[in-house]
Amino acid sequence: MQHLDLQVVEQAREWLNASETVWLCTVLSTFGSSPREPGSIMVAKADGRHLGSLSGGCVEEDFLERLQAGEFSQRVCTERYGLRSEDNRPHIQLPCGGILDVLIERLEPDEGNGHHLADLAAVMRGREQKLRCISLVDGSCSLVAVDSSGGARVEVGTDRVSVRMGPSLRLIIAGLSSVAIPCAEFAVSLGYEVIVCEPREEEYRDFSLAGVRLEKILPSMFIAKPGNCHQQTAVVAVTHDPRIDDLAMIEAVRTDAFYIGVMGSRLTSDKRAARLLSTGGLNPDQLARIQMPIGLSLGSKTPAEIALAVMADVLRVQRGIKRDQL
Length: 326
Fold this sequence. Notes:
The protein is of the alpha/beta class and 326 residues long. The chain folds into 2 domains: 163 residues, no CATH class; 156 residues, Rossmann fold, CATH 3.40.50. It contains 10 helices and 15 strands. Helix 1 runs antiparallel to helix 3 and helix 4 packs across helix 10. The two termini are 24 Å apart.
């Protein structure tokens, strides 16, 4: 789940609390290439104001135009984009040539919908995943527990849709550096909730980056706090300062973070590995969780190029792709 999805849910709550009806749209499935993956969401009002996205823009434009024309008055429906519709309306051609199925829910500003979205936001801020189940018959919805973190993001049945919801993607950057800034910028654009942990006042004094949260604390202390590192969290250390980087790694391997990496040359990484085993108290299995040297081997030289290699590697692990599959 992207951090943008949480913002969408929060916006939907804000509009509901202002007695506005909202339409919550969810990508159910894609065929061929498509800009957004199943589970992506968007919220809109009757006046066309919206947050989030479903495609590269063409689907949103069609939906919002029809919404403002008075369509989608039913409680729940599905819409397919990329093919000619049954009523022979001019079909929307996705720029990538794909097909997109979208669930459209009309949510009235009542107590039940308000509670549901509040519960959904809590799930997305928490640590555990839940299934959001929506009836295709009457639009009723609920959140139910799941036994594991695995499984398809979206499952579509004959009369029900289930969407796996959980914590938003989070990137914890251990310490500020010339590489940390572009890392944070890339991560924000990829939909991550980005948290920079930096205890050194001389480093954070002039730091300001839109969409990035600054914690003036040792990264290791932040990482160790319950709830700060969950299964959707990546931890990267890019300061070249072992006092910050090593301690961050020692705590990160004790969490559920899906990606843990630290910057350094091969020689520096070998020395760090020996240090973490001898004095850091890590065992070989914990050490194996750390990507070091961090990032894909792209021949990166500049801070921005290194940051690109780092975030590309985070994406690789997030998607479950092995290095030898690239």
